[in-house]
Amino acid sequence: MEHQPYKTWLSENSTLTPVEEENLKDHLAVCTECSLLARDLKALDSFLGKAISHAPSPGFPHRFLASLPERREAEQVRQVRKWMVGLFIALIVNMALIVTAAIFTRTTSAWLVNLAVAYGTIIGLLQQTQFIYRAFSLVIPPHIWMITVMVALAWGLAGVGLWVWTLRGILLSGVKNG
Amino acid sequence: MNFSEAEILQKALQKDDVAFAELVEKYQSPVFNLCFRMLGTEVEAEDAAQETFWRAYQALQSYDQNRSFITWLLSIAAHLCIDSQRKRKVPIIEIDEFEEFDVTDHNPQPEAIMIRRQEQEMIQRMLNGLGELDRAAIILRYWQGFSEEEIAAALSISVSAVKSRLHRSRQNLARVFSQNESPFPVER
């Protein structure tokens, strides 16, 4: 005997048209399997319909409010930790890019272009990461941006200075072959 | 959402903790009940419900006000409990806990208490036999009275997936229910 679509109608508790309802009624009258399913589903609905809804113990909102300072602090620590890891990775990538640029370029202009590209990439990456913004807005005061820019500039100037110093040495002593 | 709730929500959106606590007060029961039915113990349900409200508190700015607040809240709770269940794998039932927070039982007779405890034990055992998503769908259907569309929105799955899960879960539950010797009278 074909049990579809009757089983689906029963299990999905579908809204049926009068014709469908009549068909279902006729089918249930002759099909033991479907009539048992209908009986079990009805019993289940009745049983679960009576099931109680559990509530928390009194003072739940108060406990939530009381936990807010601790939760905020934990979230700040998590964000700062995340930011620090991000910054550390960005610095490693930055250094790797600078070293790569130094190794694979021979001309001064190409070196500078690569350096600029490396910094641009890092700054772009940092700007795209939302957690930086969150960490800054939650924990670190606004003027920290100036300190970050100054540190980045100092880092860049130190790199350029080192490069100029090396270049000066080569220019003064000349390249010696053999 | 009624006017006063919209007002409370507006205040909560402006970082008013007291206003948010009013939302917690209003929705604590459905959130806790979902967590309890999903996780099976009061302690875990309390932690999950508190965590749900904390996540909602953090994400309140991203809440779409055209959407039902309770659906959004229960969506957070359901996903939290599903993740928790997947990490835990083995469900734990503390049957002794059922009696003490039975909020609707006004009949203190020992027999009635015993029957209620057995009912709760059986419900929890039946729910624990379902997969996490199926269980969440069943809880939202039976305890929250959610439509298939609302369940789909809460669980981030399609309406057809909800239908299929409810179909399968109800058949399984009905089979398990009929196979168990029921110690209490059920209208058949």
Number of domains of chain B: 1
Shape type of chain A: elongated
| Helix and strand sequence of chain B | HHHHHHHHH
The counted number of beta strands of chain A is 0
How would you classify the helix and strand content of chain B by structural class? mainly alpha
CATH topology (fold) name of chain B: Rna Polymerase Sigma Factor, Chain: A
Low-confidence stretches of chain A: none
Gap from first CA to last CA of chain B: 38 Å
Main sheet record of chain B: none
Cα shape of chain B: globular
Count all strands of chain B and give the number: 0
Oligomer: heterodimer
User: What structural category arises from helix and sheet content of chain A?
Assistant: mainly alpha
Which descriptors would you attach to this protein?
heterodimer; A: 178 residues; mainly alpha; 2 domains; 7 helices; 80% helix; elongated; B: 188 residues; Rna Polymerase Sigma Factor, Chain: A; 9 helices; 0% strand; globular; disordered C terminus
List the helices and strands and how they pair.
The complex is a heterodimer of chains A (178) and B (188).
Chain A: H1 6-12, H2 18-30, H3 32-49, H4 60-104, H5 108-128, H6 130-138, H7 144-173
Helix pairs in contact in A: 1-3, 2-3, 4-5, 4-6
Chain B: H1 3-13, H2 17-39, H3 42-58, H4 69-88, H5 97-100, H6 110-128, H7 132-142, H8 148-155, H9 159-179
